[in-house]
Amino acid sequence: MPETALQAALKEAERILGGDADRVVHPVPPGANVSMFRPRRVPAVVRPFHAAQVPALVRAFACDETPPLHAVSTGRNWGLGSREAAGHDAVRIELDDLDRIRDLDTEQGWAVVEPGVTQQHLSRALDGTRRMLNVTASSGHSSVLGNALDRGVGLRRQRTEDLVGLEVVLPDGEQVRVGWWPRGEARTAPNPYGLGPSLLHLFTQSNYGIVTAGVVRLLPRPETQRVLRLGFGRDDLSAVVDELRRWHAQGLVHGVLKIYDTTSATSYGTDTGRGGFLAHVSLGGTTAVVDALTEVAVEAALESGLFSDVARSDKEPPADDDVVSRVVEHGYSGSVVHHEEMLRSAVGRHAARVDDEGGGWLFFLPLVPFTGEHVTAALRLLDEVHAATDVRPGATVNALDPDVIDLVVSIRFARTDDETARAHDALDRLYESFTAAGYLPYRLDVDHGGWTDRLVDPSALALGRRLRQVIDPHHVIAPGRYA
Ligand SMILES: Cc1cc2nc3c(=O)[nH]c(=O)nc-3n(C[C@H](O)[C@H](O)[C@H](O)COP(=O)(O)OP(=O)(O)OC[C@H]3O[C@@H](n4cnc5c(N)ncnc54)[C@H](O)[C@@H]3O)c2cc1C
């Protein structure tokens, strides 16, 4: 039988990877994902262990007859599809063995990291320094770059703001650097925009290339870090959101302000008991500044009469069983020491076992204007989904700035046929009702990639496709969730 294009490409891949047959998996048994999206057919998995191998691997697949490539960093995109591609029949290129911190400058505040560098790896490397990583609330074993490439959100800010440079292998195998890169001994200030059209974000939420490294900024570590926890009931939600917006706009909040509703707090491992909401407000700076901010914020909270509980982390550290508050408090300081406890509460398994054995988990991630009226209206949409499906989605309000809320809607379910069907029905309804209300998702899961066509301006879509045709005329990279 003549050799197929795939077989020839895989033989070449094995040669590039030093003849190590374990790094080229073919055929690939169907794999599960924690969200129970239908498993994609995957003709092969390729696992390079050095960034320099990636251009040759891409060239091995750069003909019209070979299947396209789908890159993942650590593949822990739980809730949105994990390591699955948007469609069937893409060869997965797994980059978790590219795990070097290539360069680290705690004076200027940047690190050059490869896709397999995890939050835990980088945050530990910064222990005891004056810099910290903007960590997400996901596992310490998830990728810093993978999350930033999907435009994830950390506890300090959206990860896109941390990204200043990317090293990318284009579909013809050429390796390019976009954005800012260190220049040897010369100390240049990290600036993602450089000169001319900014190319950096051509490669986030994108299938224009495969990223082999990136430069991320490291935030100055506050000399003192404190968290205020404010409890309140649903009747006061609207007024509280408006009050906290004022705090945010006036500089009282340092980082992403988070509000967990009862369902989401329970899902992530904290029993709010009184059936209420809990807001976490991060305060940071010199000790004198944080003391002053604490005084102002506590006084404002008490004066407002909106809060049933006001606790400050230095006086009342979270209880041992308050997983959410512990994760949030340490996360604001760039630490992931408690993150695996929260993952275990959410899906019942350690990172390595989440997709095979974890409890079902879905995310829907819309942006909502930061006003009490809009946040209340958005939560009402969750009530409607609950009434229609009997699935109660959890909500975490993440204030990215004084105007924008990233509303993290999570659905926890048992991976039985019945509960899976209801959870996915609820997810479909969320897409419909939220977009009808103008609350548009900023990240998509693997089954809702088609929504890009519905949500993006047609002229922008057309421009993106023209660029793709120029950069990848042979469709070496698989269609993604966003294109
Ligand atoms: C309990 C829990 C809490 C969570 N909390 C958060 C949170 O606070 N914030 C948040 O954002 N998410 C959160 N998540 C979701 C998710 O786990 C994280 O976003 C995680 O970082 C994504 O997985 P990853 O880092 O392995 O990225 P990957 O899965 O490797 O990558 C994500 C996507 O980016 C693209 N990509 C990755 N690498 C490359 C590359 N080298 N070249 C080109 N494209 C690439 C691909 O499209 C890929 O599908 C949470 C999940 C759970 C279960």
Concise account of the structure shown:
The chain has helices spanning 5-16, 54-60, 119-125, 144-149, 237-249, 262-268, 287-304, 323-332, 339-347, 354-357, 372-389, 417-436, 451-455, 458-471, and strands spanning 24-25, 45-46, 69-72, 91-94, 101-105, 110-113, 131-132, 163-169, 175-179, 210-217, 219-220, 224-232, 257-260, 277-285, 309-312, 360-369, 394-399, 404-413, 441-443. By secondary structure, the protein is of the alpha+beta class. The model has no long low-confidence stretch (mean pLDDT 96).
Task: Describe the structure using short key phrases.
483 residues, alpha+beta, Uridine Diphospho-n-acetylenolpyruvylglucosamine Reductase, domain 3, Vanillyl-alcohol Oxidase, Chain A, domain 3, 2 domains, eight-stranded antiparallel sheet, five-stranded antiparallel sheet, 14 helices, binds flavin-adenine dinucleotide
What features would you describe in this structure?
- With 483 residues, the chain is α+β, with helices and mostly antiparallel strands.
- The chain is built from 14 helices and 19 strands.
- It has an eight-stranded antiparallel sheet, with helices on both faces. It has a five-stranded antiparallel sheet with strand order 5-6-10-8-9. A four-stranded mixed sheet has the order 1-2-4-3.
- A hairpin with a 4-residue loop joins strand 17 (394-399) and strand 18.
- The structure holds flavin-adenine dinucleotide.
- The site of flavin-adenine dinucleotide has 30 residues, from strand 3, helix 4, strand 10 and helix 9.
